Amino acid sequence: MTDPALSQPSAPDRTDSGTGSDTGSETGAGPRLVLGQERPLKLDCGAELGPFTVAYRAYGRLNAERSNAILICHALTGDQYVADPHPITGKPGWWQQLVGPGKVIDTDRYFVLCPNVLGSCMGSTGPKETNPETGRPYGLDFPVITIGDMVEAQVRLLDHLGIDSLFCVIGGSMGGMQVLQWAARHPDRVFSAVPIATSWRHSAQNIAFHEVGRQAIMADPDWCGGDYLNQGKTPHRGLAVARMAAHVTYLSEPALHRKFGRRLQNRAALSFGFDADFQVESYLRHQGSTFVERFDANSYLYITRAMDYFDLALEHGGVLANAFTGTPVRYCVVSFTSDWLFPTSESRQVVHALNAVAANVSFVEVASDKGHDAFLLDEPQFHDTLAGFLDGAAEHRGLPHAEATP
Amino acid sequence: MTDPALSQPSAPDRTDSGTGSDTGSETGAGPRLVLGQERPLKLDCGAELGPFTVAYRAYGRLNAERSNAILICHALTGDQYVADPHPITGKPGWWQQLVGPGKVIDTDRYFVLCPNVLGSCMGSTGPKETNPETGRPYGLDFPVITIGDMVEAQVRLLDHLGIDSLFCVIGGSMGGMQVLQWAARHPDRVFSAVPIATSWRHSAQNIAFHEVGRQAIMADPDWCGGDYLNQGKTPHRGLAVARMAAHVTYLSEPALHRKFGRRLQNRAALSFGFDADFQVESYLRHQGSTFVERFDANSYLYITRAMDYFDLALEHGGVLANAFTGTPVRYCVVSFTSDWLFPTSESRQVVHALNAVAANVSFVEVASDKGHDAFLLDEPQFHDTLAGFLDGAAEHRGLPHAEATP
């Protein structure tokens, strides 16, 4: 930890009866907990997974009442490095402008947890980790997991840390799906919830874009039917194409126009060839080539699949409102005007469902031309909204303001 | 020809001083003219191309005044089979509902020409054709061509057929780019022009989507640096991924939702695997796998590049209106509400530029939820618009109505 104010929580004095063991907390990767040794996770696909590992980062201190915990859920290609530099890329944490001492998600006030989701590749159990049954990487032997499974793995993490109730669960995109799943399934353990730039079910268009990415990966001969790790290969090219295809959907035409337009890359005239003539091409290629250095191709398959499978209404007789009946959770739903991947209309459907059960919900559509990625960027209206909501919720929760530090 | 009313034109009595020779007109592929033998095409890249072949289909009869010719320009993956079955897929012509005797583009009244664009793969010269200098397929030795080059090849075709002036030039998407280029560069040879679902310059977002497709093709080891035809391979997987990625952009979220939603494909429950669980996945895979049977991967690279390079303002000092100064052409600009690839705003910019030079222009934004593909589909408002515009223009041009057939 580079910032002394960001510290691991005091060791929880209660653990989940020996099902958790902490490994590697002294490494740069942060704590990795082995969970589910005695009680495997029952996955939605019917399989059982255990033991499994959850890697996470924690910031701030859990208070004596254990009432100030915020769970941050990351997106498809995100990870637990929400507020400190990424160990592979060296880039700042993906929400470092939001999370830290004195920031909107104030680590002087809150205890912030961010676990790497099940199925991912930054330390939590996923297809690149070793299958204890074979001693080799899971590859496609890893079970297909769901957003619900990700949440249940997080439940085990909280059980282990002795946190009965989250002050808030927050996340954007796939993180927002986890937020909705958390609040719907465990309303007694969630005081407030902030689903951002997300939906209650993955749309046909979004499934289609994900399928393109998966096909790009599976078309790469170096994917080896998913067994590339055992065969000493990596489907870099397919994964890069998948990333490029997805990346376009994270932006907006106005943002691309403003950022790149038709400007040429390091040249005065068109090359009449297939090099990256345009800045936007060069940018996309860069996005593809840097992504493959930090992400596992099979994880990309599994996590996109989990998102595709997400349909919160389906679990509740096809009626979304039923997912929230009697909910005590305070909601703040956020969307962005130029987000065409998770458009405001889908957030509005969540709000309508919450209104239908008389839930406590506020809804803000933030004006932004930055597309879906806006939730990761410096958007003052979004940050102000979040700050206001958290302050209000903290007051209701009786959480004191952070003490003034000398 | 299956329909007796669709016949080749009477042999033109004037040819372009021996630069054209007709080959293979008796084959199912339709006429293929070898042009530019004495006078090669000067391409925008600086290279010269000649001889080159233009394959085309013709429907109806050229009148004695040679004043009733309509040129139809096809889109990226289209071809000359506009009104009769495709020789590879066996499917109806891509505008068969619009083009034919008694239809909106009435082949009893008009002489309709549809050439395969330069760079494509259905008979016109492109990267898969034989390079006369080497006796082997061009591959990447084919010069990078532009929309302007495609138009100039069509100009040579018209010269050969003895058609000085087109009654109308019509096309959607990339076809619309050719329409704009025709009208801007050869206003004296175009009486009326209908650019549909198109733009005056390819946007940054569209360049980005094209770059994804190109990277998918070039990532396929069977692409062999573009030399696959000489090496007996075909980059089927990469081309299929490119097609899938592009195909999503041709539709709209509402259309995908209506057509597929989250419905499962031939199964009652999720498979918890990576097969095509959802109908939309199965549909996309089908789009990819059928496309590779009829399209050449290098052609895909070249034609997407031509679209990316298109910027009609750039050729005119950065001011689009300058492209149309003093134009005598009658324009009908058409866009579709749900087309997010070539949104109405871009058509409106064309209309504004035409208004700025006091051109004769009508503009219709057709309400449709079918996305960019709407221009290929049965959209009554679009068809009515086109019928009304053509009738009015024909009256001004003094073209008689089709004679009543017994």
UniProtKB/TrEMBL annotation, chains A, B:
Amino acids binding substrate: 243, 373
EC number(s) recorded for this UniProt protein: 2.3.1.31
Q: Compositionally biased, Polar residues: which spans?
A: 1-10
Chain ranges of the AB hydrolase-1 domain:
68-377
Q: Which reaction does it catalyse?
A: L-homoserine + acetyl-CoA = O-acetyl-L-homoserine + CoA
The molecular function terms of the Gene Ontology recorded here are:
homoserine O-acetyltransferase activity
> Which compartment or compartments is the protein found in?
Cytoplasm
What Pfam families does the record tag this protein with? Abhydrolase_1
According to the lineage, what is the superkingdom?
Bacteria
Task: Provide GO CC annotations from the record.
Answer: cytoplasm
Task: List UniProt keywords, sorted A-Z.
Answer: Acyltransferase, Amino-acid biosynthesis, Cytoplasm, Methionine biosynthesis, Transferase
Its pathway, per UniProt, is: Amino-acid biosynthesis; L-methionine biosynthesis via de novo pathway; O-acetyl-L-homoserine from L-homoserine: step 1/1
Q: One GO BP annotation here?
A: homoserine metabolic process
Q: Which family does it belong to?
A: Belongs to the AB hydrolase superfamily. MetX family.
UniProt cross-references to PANTHER family, sorted A to Z? HOMOSERINE O-ACETYLTRANSFERASE
Q: What is this protein called?
A: Homoserine O-acetyltransferase
Q: Which gene name belongs to this protein?
A: metXA
